[in-house]
Specification:
The complex is a heterodimer.
Chain A: E1 4-7, E2 10-13, E3 19-25, E4 31-38, E5 42-49, E6 56-57, E7 65-67, E8 73-78, E9 87-94, E10 101-102, E11 106-110
Parallel strand pairs in A: 2-11
Antiparallel strand pairs in A: 1-3, 3-8, 4-5, 4-9, 5-6, 7-8, 9-10, 9-11
Chain B: E1 4-7, E2 10-14, E3 19-25, E4 31-37, E5 43-48, E6 52-56, E7 59-64, E8 69-74, E9 83-90, E10 100-101, E11 105-110
Parallel strand pairs in B: 2-11
Antiparallel strand pairs in B: 1-3, 3-8, 4-5, 4-9, 6-7, 7-8, 9-10, 9-11
Chain lengths: ~110, ~110
């Protein structure tokens, strides 16, 4: 089992460009999450999903969109990147009452 | 919402020493997890421990839910134990169905 995988691992964008981060999990988890981690701010929840076709806002959803068309995939989109979105992005998945498993992270820099 | 406090914020150990990390939370929880983020940024789930005691090798954890705290014990520390340790909590019956992360304990194990 690969667990939780993320694509890409690194990306540099210019302000105003768009991109999509892909998360995939092979553990049949219902719940999937996108977090961002910034120095001194800890882990902050952007969006999450409790099942295929559902999404919900977390603590810091502005500037991001998500989609969960398939149970195993959770996509995070940035429509118009801003320097404030420079961060490390982590995807995670879990059962409702179970351990949370994280992907390896995507380091995004917006110039 | 639930407040999560971890102590100490920083800890430096010599290899072979033991340590105890603490996580206090402000309300009742039915999901508590401990994570290790290594110096390369990878987040690993150590324990799912809403109550009771668990052990995994040199690591063990105890949660006393009635007193609203959890402890992570590291025995015979090794340099590979370095990194940040996070606890995260959730109350399924609460207003928010999302894990709340503490700010972490930064551990450095010196050879």
């Amino acid at each position: 089992n690969a667990g939780v995988t993320q694509t890409p691992k690194f990306r540099v964008l210019k302000t105003g460009q768009s991109m999509t981060l892909l998360c995939a999990q092979d553990m049949n988890h219902e719940y999937m999450y996108w977090y961002r981690q910034d120095p001194g701010m800890g882990l902050r929840l952007i969006h999450y999903s409790v099942g295929e076709g559902t999404t919900a806002k977390g603590e810091v959803p502005d500037g991001y969109n998500v989609s969960r068309l398939k149970k195993q995939n959770f996509l995070l989109g940035l429509e118009s990147a801003a320097p404030s979105q420079t961060s490390v992005y982590f995807c995670a998945s879990s059962y409702l009452r179970g351990s949370l498993f994280f992907g390896p992270g995507t380091r995004l820099t917006v110039l | 919402g639930i407040q999560v406090e971890q102590s100490p914020p920083d800890l430096i150990l010599q290899e072979g020493a033991n340590s105890t990390l603490r996580c206090n939370f402000s309300d009742s929880v039915n999901n508590l997890q401990w994570f290790h983020q290594n110096p390369w940024g990878q987040l690993i789930n150590l324990f799912y421990i809403p109550s009771g005691t668990k052990q995994n090798g040199r690591l063990s954890a105890t949660t006393v839910a009635t007193e609203r705290y959890s402890l992570l014990y590291i025995s015979s520390s090794q340099t590979t134990d370095s990194g940040v340790y996070f606890c995260a909590v959730l109350n399924y019956g609460g207003a928010t169905n999302k894990l709340i992360f503490g700010t972490g304990t930064l551990l450095a194990v010196q050879p």
